[in-house]
Amino acid sequence: MAAVATVAGLVTAGLIAASPASSATLTEVTGFGANPTNLRMHLYVPDRVAARPAVLVAVHYCTGSGPAFHSGTEFASLADRYGFIVVYPSATRSGSCFDVSSPQALRRDGGSDPVGIMSMVRYVQQRYNPDPGRIYVTGASSGAMMTNVLLGDYPDVFAAGAAFMGVPFGCFATADGSSWNSACANGQVVKTPRQWGDLVRGAHPGHSGPRPRMQVWHGTEDTILRHPNLQEEVKQWTDVHGLGQTPSLTDRPRPNWIRTRYGSTGENAPVEAISVQGGGHDLPMSGMAEAALRFFGLTGGPTPTLTPTPTPTGGAGACRVSYAMNAWNTGFTGAVKVTNTGTATLDGWSLTFTLPAGQTVTSAWNAVVSPPAGRVTAGNVSYNRILAPGASADFGFQATHTGDTARPPAFALNGVACAAG
Prior knowledge:
Pfam families: CBM_2, Esterase_PHB. By secondary structure, this protein is an alpha/beta fold.
């Protein structure tokens, strides 16, 4: 299990945390149904959800937890924006890795963790009337492996998945009862597309309907689950969809992302792979989570229409913002200070502003900034989440520009306009 612990250490080292700024909170659910491995369930329901909301199952890394994945990724804040529900499972065994290796886990309703996670999905289906055609799963590291497993075990439940730094379905299978497969982790398990596809089809032999779409991500410098696993995942899921190995599209949506699409050139391609040049064994960050939602189709569609986000009270929205730029010929850095001038402590903050045309954020510190251009939101990270009355939080970012170096015209903290300071 030493290797498993290393996974968590590297993932945590690359962590950029984001917390939702709404009044919605993460809630633990017990008694949600069959749960043979005693998983825990946490649920995030935003203040505004669509009439038939989508559901996203977000699965953590080794030594992590559902609450850690909630606070360490952007999925909850994106749920606030797009109105879907997020389920966060937690593994409770030693090492907190999910079972992606046992025979029970690798077949439909065979037992182990997938059964407990499916009980969580059914719990949400029974109580929130979600759209059954918009159930999705994503995860990082061990959670990415579970994403592959759930799409294989339950192809009639999940519409699509996004796996960040994982391995193919069945790659981690072991015969000795251990949960770590070094050959797979090192990218040394190589199969033909048909062999990989047969492993998926064998998980639910009776299934003859459509298969979930799959998006896979991997960093080229990943030393825990090595980069060759990306191509093995592509081989597996293209075969499952009856596709060849030649991409329909190859492009670079960002300078260090090489994206290939199979079976289609559009956003709804059956299989999409993104190789992150220079990337390591990291959580989804810097626009990756939103790119996954775009692949799912969750960044468009109807605006949430149910319970509206409440207006902050007790002076919680009162704020002052200072903004300084240091520009050069094609780029600039921005230094921002946001001060809580109200009378109530903010437990989570989100600063919204619009960048002039041509300005694009390339990196940020002390905040998560997304999307990179246009109307952007800078959200707190874990260590500056609390903003007491009179307290300030400083963050910054680097950006490129095409000539316009004007500052944003206005700022809003948690939806309330701020004064310029």
